[in-house]
Design goal:
Two copies of one chain form a homodimer.
Chain A: H1 5-19, H2 28-35, H3 39-51, E1 55-58, E2 64-67, H4 76-83, H5 108-124, H6 127-135, H7 146-149
Helix pairs in contact in A: 1-3, 1-4, 1-6, 2-3
The structure holds a DNA duplex (30 and 30 nucleotides).
Amino acid sequence: MILSRTSQYAIQALIYVTTRPRGEPVLNREIAEHLGVPAAYLAKIMQTLCRSHLLDSFRGRLGGFCLHENAEKTDLMQILLLTEGAGFTDTCLLGLKVCSDETACPMHSRWKPIKEKVVLLLKEQTLEKLALAVQSGKYRITDLPHAAMNPP
Amino acid sequence: MILSRTSQYAIQALIYVTTRPRGEPVLNREIAEHLGVPAAYLAKIMQTLCRSHLLDSFRGRLGGFCLHENAEKTDLMQILLLTEGAGFTDTCLLGLKVCSDETACPMHSRWKPIKEKVVLLLKEQTLEKLALAVQSGKYRITDLPHAAMNPP
DNA sequence: TTGATTCAGGACATGCTCATCCTTTACAAA
DNA sequence: TTTGTAAAGGATGAGCATGTCCTGAATCAA
């Protein structure tokens, strides 16, 4: 299961915003620098997240992005439906256009329960839970600094 | 989990060749027509499968592709390591370059067991088993004909 | 030897994702 | 009102996966 960079950036950015104090807009530049992702590209993603009402945006001085009302209850499945498109979880492993219980590829019966586990997992992980995990210090949403990745 | 078209075509073609009588070369054109995939593109994929010794190729009249000695014991994991590249199963859901038991993203601990299930599944599915499933008539590796997909 | 057939392989075209750049619009403080 | 700041949005480009085309090399039959 490999998500598009767009989805990965979206999830990372949303978690980061959720870790920040509610009501204080967070700058796109700050998010991009913190995550180590291209700011101009992230800006486009933030735009679509605003249009999907997961974020609110404010222009000008004191501007930035805030989590929309109750958006911390959003789960990963909802986010991925936006960024990957509907039906991203009911794809056939072999790429068949129609692969269902009635007429299937030879992997279908074993692949389906795994997909179901994935969907359950994505649905139970909310921004709130993920942000808490990051705030605990045990987990991270950014790459390690270069020094830690290339020890001398 | 979405595989590249290249991987999907490779798996489909290998299963198809496995369903055919051993020792009788199968034409690239025949495979492409049967699977409904572009012949020129498939030819490139068949080439790499030959270089990986999953197939043998023969030119000229009576030419075509045969399954290499014992290649019917090949499992999907081995095929995907060739087509998707090594390490395609140990990627982080959020895209982190380093995400291990020691230092991880907040999804790691729940994502890892799912990845392990996927790997086990891919390793137990051999071309032989998949070809038998297709030959039984219960499963298919090609798209339904248009009529069946767009009923009147 | 010639011709037909089939794979090998390079060059090229296309489409999508990822990414950048620049101008416009909105907003707040001075 | 002016100035600085930040998001909105359009245009454009880079890179890779996908797909096409054409020529060459191998093989077999006539």
